[in-house]
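Quick question, first post here. What does this chain look like in 3D?
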Amino acid sequence: MTQAQYDERITALGKANAEEEKEFGKQKEALKKIYGDSAEYDTEYTKLKEKHAARRMEYAIAEVNGYENFGVKHEVVQKQLEENLKRYGLTYDQVAKEIDKRAQAIAKSDDRIAKSSGKMTDETVKANQMWNAMIFNPKDGKVKTNAKQVVAESMKSKDGWNNMMFMLKNARLSSNAKSIVLTGIIENNKWNSLTFEQKQMLAAYKGAPEVIKALNDIDKWQTLSAKQQQLIAKAKTKTELKKALKDMGLWDKLPEKIKKMLAESKDVKKKTKDGKKDIDSYNKKDPKKKKFTSSAPGAKETKKQLSAVEKQWKSIKSGTKTLNVVTHYTEKGKKTKKRMGLVQIIFKVELPF
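> Answer (accepted):
Ran it through. Tokens below.
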């Protein structure tokens, strides 16, 4: 929606509302003539007011809908909207609440709608209403077909960006809803404006923010297209993310710690098993001829331990020398454990004693 289209729509709604007010006044006078000051008048007038309020709400909803489609490119538009809604006797929050009420009717069938419940903070209530007012079209009772575009446009102004961050923090957004937000953020080149917590909140796979940071550090992230960036940020598993990085030719450019993080569990198990074999082989050797060589993960830590005891080992002048190496390791989702000679990082060590 262009500025001219937006202005034309607002003018038309203003005229329609003025006609509604005029008609309401005429009907009120007609009721007064028919019933005078009586209980019947009060009953009929109450019905008239309810119909009048319902029509005014429809005009207000149409205005808010146009405002959201316009994308809040300028803060002045938001101020204009708040002023315009006064002619309907309504505030933005009241209109957003009504839109949210209607949106809840399809919340079960479309998880892009922020779902409401009885136990919510005031911030969550407001954030849900703001989100649903943005993406829901109360006219046809569906999520807007251009919801992604509307959300992306909304972030282009300072107020729009702040509102989006408020919604991201407080609204009950599903993964599909967050995906819409993520698309808008990437298209507006706003990823680096997010906190690490916000990045984790948006990324489908929680390790993605660290990968993106690594790509930023080597000046590769900004060279990617918005589509490529979305493939990385929206990857749902480490396997999917790893494949995307390899397809883009980025895998070999990543630091080892990132590659390790994305290593498949079966690869980790194999490397752990290989590491144990290296230690078992080491422990069987003659103490005077021992060398430790490993390509298994964690050898760097083992090297440090061996180095620490080297002086003590050499200081023993006679007697039987024995060496018992215990290293620490952590498996995902488990507490730190100890194993004889287990190693962690891919590293080759040769330490003659």
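Residues 3-154 form one domain.
Residues 292-296, 318-353 have pLDDT under 50 and may be disordered.
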